[in-house]
Amino acid sequence: MEQDGSRLRAMVVLTCLNAASGARELKVRSKAHKAVYNHTLATILVEYASTISVYMSDLTDLFSWTLPRFDGKTKGFEVIKLIVDLQHCLQAYIGVAKDLNAMVIAFRGSQEHSIQNWVEDLYWKQLDINYPGMPGAMVHHGFYFAHHNTTIRPGILDAVTRAKDLYGDINIMVTGHSMGGAMASFCGLDLVVNHEARNVQVLTFGQPRIGNAVFASCHSDRVPNTIRITNGHDIVPHLPPYYSRFPQKTYHHFPREVWLYNIGFGSLVYQVEKVCDSSGEDPSCSRSVTGNSIADHLVYYGVGLMAETWGSCKIVMDARLKEYGGEDVKGNLMLSRNPSASTLRLPSDSDAKSNFS
């Protein structure tokens, strides 16, 4: 544990030295950036991001949407599809929030064995794959693979098509926390570029950098209604590192960032919500502080975003849910339902015994 702490401190020192360098920085060029920060919407979507993080192991609670906590800001949400890629410990759900008049897509991404190990691995990630159809745009293959090359993507596209058939061309809101935020960003871009979706909005929490400045510009142009929420000294938005001395080769955030930070002293502390510039790397926002806090990564707007056990992909599911889907040949799970149904109908125990014994 002491060795792990030393490693983390060394990474923080390197990040500070990089932030202090005076090289000329690239600016994200966006012709259409129009994201407007809405506090109320952010506090609603963080609940959706939290739900998939906290309840990722209990598919029954998540798929049925019946727990007491769902009677708050997410009340009335109708799940259309729940996808679990057990091979890569990834998960997403898609449904319709009628109060938002929107489809919501929420991602939970794997943090491997523990969040500290995941953070250490993230620190050394390199740009190593060209994004298709965007000359000069580079991303890390791990983030790209998580969205494009797993069971998650085809499941999402199927659910989006079904929701549009039922509800028309409603808004699509994509969200996620941490690596789930990275997947949400790729998903929003994919829906716009490859599937001609309109009215796509992306809002993420504690998202890492996922590509270079060219990619950031392309993402901003194609998905202009995108906001990244960062919190205090959250370490993950500082990773993979931004090296201002190598602007063409380094990772670069896309806009727009909204930085949450506290001011005051003692009992007179309140949270500021700063809307940052359109560069993606506003030096007066989260880059103005050291990214050294895991605690700040796990709570946004007072909502906890930590699963009960990090790195656990153990799934619990009522056998009666098998009526709504099942496993593929690789053991991945996909559950689907008709969103026009007002409540989820579970077969009786006797039905379950006869069908699945």
UniProtKB/TrEMBL annotation:
<dbReference type="InterPro" id="IPR029058">
    <property type="entry name" value="AB_hydrolase_fold"/>
</dbReference>
<keyword id="KW-0378">Hydrolase</keyword>
<protein>
    <recommendedName>
        <fullName>Fungal lipase-type domain-containing protein</fullName>
    </recommendedName>
</protein>
<dbReference type="GO" id="GO:0016787">
    <property type="term" value="F:hydrolase activity"/>
</dbReference>
<dbReference type="InterPro" id="IPR051218">
    <property type="entry name" value="Sec_MonoDiacylglyc_Lipase"/>
</dbReference>
<dbReference type="Pfam" id="PF01764">
    <property type="entry name" value="Lipase_3"/>
</dbReference>
<feature type="domain" description="Fungal lipase-type">
    <location>
        <begin position="104"/>
        <end position="242"/>
    </location>
</feature>
<dbReference type="InterPro" id="IPR002921">
    <property type="entry name" value="Fungal_lipase-type"/>
</dbReference>
